[in-house]
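User: What would this chain look like folded?
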Amino acid sequence: MEYLRYISEFIANPWVDIFMFIVGTLFISVVFFLVQITSAGMFSSKVTDISILGFKHHRKNDGKWEYRGHHIKLGFSANTVVDFNKRPGIDSNKLMSLEKSHMLFTGITTLVIGIAVSAGCIIGSFNMYYFIPARLVFLSGFWILLFAVGRMVIVISTISKLFSKNSLGGYCTAAIGRIRAGVPFEQLDLKSVGELNFKKTSDIARKMYFPIYFSYLDAKGLYNRMPEAVADVERTVIKTEKHEIAIAVYMTLIYYYSYHNVVPSKAKEYYHILGDDILKDTDSNSMRIKGFYELNCFGDVKKAKMYAAKAIEGINGFSVPSEREYEKSCIAKLNNAINNFQY
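Assistant: Here's the prediction, encoded as structure tokens.
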């Protein structure tokens, strides 16, 4: 009992709590990260993006890694997608099943490892001779267990939001699955957030859905619906956010304010929020967006032509067929805008 009293006093020290909080966070983050990337092949997936303590890298279709800048972030993360070279012709339902299974496997494996390490730390701390190391080991086990359970809760919550048929997240995930399975954007027949009228639609779900829905409107030529979609997502924008979903929203808004509704001040605002994320992005869609930005916000035809050429140069290795065809149509619009630009 005396030993436990000392430990409780040690836990009450805020500096120790902060330090061990960081230790627990990093340990579980590293475990989850390693399990996710090493198990990707088991679920016919490949790693496309990684972030190590905020240093971001993107894997291009040719297999080369591209540095995408740094944002202060504690922890490790990765993004994986189904590799269509391994599973050609996969339907959208099977695709979503693979992604869900990969998420569950990563979460459960991380939880099991966390419990095992936590148990070892807590039991081992009672057999250590020196008190301070024993207390540190005990606290390590405590935080590791807490974060392992927390990460599993996040996985379950994410799956319920992304794959539920009665939520915007599930509706969006289904649309993404159809795109990856080869359905052209103009054939998606998507509805606006207002028309869907799902209950308790979160801001993050609106942000996730916006680029997909906007691209559908663009491909279908439903330009009159764009202002409503833009107004809806702009109400959710927090300009300090720099996660992947927010970046996709900013990119789409730059395109909108540089082409469909040219407002240079708005386009520049979102462009500067992105910073390195758009400057270092060499994918065809980024090049195309930068081309419209330079053309209509600065009147720089030379730069616009350069970006259009780079967009075409990388188009054959860009994303999946449906996105590639949509991107080709957007690049054609950029070249048409360049040819008809009024000095």
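The longest strand covers residues 45-52. If you want, I can go into more detail on any region.
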